[in-house]
Amino acid sequence: MPPPPPSPCCVPSKQRFAQLDASIRSSAARPRATAGSLEDMIRLDAARFHMGSEAAEAFPADGEGPVRQVSLSAFYISKFAVADRQFAEFVRETAYRTEAERFGWSFVFRNHVPEPVRGPAMPGTPWWVRVDGADWAHPEGPDSSVLARPNHPVVHVSWNDALAYCAWAGYRLPTEAEWEYAARGGLDGKTYPWGDELTPGGRHMCNIWQGVFPDTDLGEDGFACVAPVDSFTPNGFGLFNAVGNTWEWCADYFDPLWHIQATSADPVGPPSGITRVTKGGSYLCHESYCRRYRSAARTGTPPDTSTGHIGFRVARDV
């Protein structure tokens, strides 16, 4: 007698097969870049790692879990986030105007601008205020300048701006999987790039908020705003500021569920979407409301967004 047919719950649906097929095709068609300089780039060989988190501090709506094994081809990723001086060179050579410059304003953390300069606050997050004239070259408004901080990460750049820089420099944005693998620094399954303890031996390892958010930042880690790109100890792969300091754009569209049925080999996000993945948290992250300064943490951000706490680092194919 032949064995009984499998239970319907064990049979993958046609929709699941279709999503897996779309994921495989998207992975194969992902953009390649091989022209960028290898200066300050780290080569990471082909590897497998456990991506995601099921820890209590993970945000279910962000889709950090389930933890899954992912394999990646070899790639290069920059040690540092793109700095003001590098973005300035891009602008000088191309006359590129960022989206914030074209819009005429950007969002600035309210504590960093005097009250007369503050425009309307963002609904739901009143610590973000519109500041006319704020852009990558004037991070806190027209009276500020990046000239005195050439080694700080460029901010007030949208996903579209980051992509334009990459095209000029011969790079691409890292996929979310590449970013997370690189950020972990070889510590598979650990909470932070340096381990599971936030401040081992009382030592601050990244630039995040200490104090009462959003009113008082004690700056116990040495910074109450964005820190230079080479601050703190690099992780095991040599990446600086993989978490904290600034959020970093990734190439993928954001979706909280797509990865559950995605390919495990060089995965990328869905083929379309509304927001793009940002990773790493920023100097504004605090345990009282946002513990996204973890390697697995993720969130979706509209690609035209520019704020004083989002930057990017670049990747390159081997």
What's the short story on this structure?
16% of the residues lie in helices and 18% in strands. It has helices at residues 14-28, 84-94, 99-103, 159-169, 176-184; strands spanning 41-44, 47-51, 68-72, 75-78, 105-109, 121-122, 125-132, 211-212, 216-217, 247-253, 276-279, 299-301, 310-311, 315-317.
Commentary on this structure:
With 318 residues, the chain is an alpha+beta fold. The protein has a single domain (13-317), classed as paralog of FGE (formylglycine-generating enzyme) (Alpha-Beta Complex). It is 16% helix and 18% strand. It has 5 helices and 14 strands. The chain has helices spanning 14-28, 84-94, 99-103, 159-169, 176-184, and strands spanning 41-44, 47-51, 68-72, 75-78, 105-109, 121-122, 125-132, 211-212, 216-217, 247-253, 276-279, 299-301, 310-311, 315-317. A 4-stranded mixed beta sheet has the order 12-11-10-13. Strand 6 and strand 7 form a beta hairpin. The chain is globular. The N and C termini lie far apart (54 Å). Residues 1-11 have low confidence and may be disordered.
| Model regions low in confidence, pLDDT < 50 over at least 5 residues | 1-11
Kindly report the name of the CATH homologous superfamily: paralog of FGE (formylglycine-generating enzyme)
Total of helices: 5
Radius of gyration: 20 Å
Order of helices and strands: HEEEEHHEEEHHEEEEEEE
CATH architecture: Alpha-Beta Complex
User: What is the makeup of the main sheet?
Assistant: 4 strands, mixed
Distance between the termini: 54 Å
Key phrases:
5 helices, disordered N terminus, 14 strands
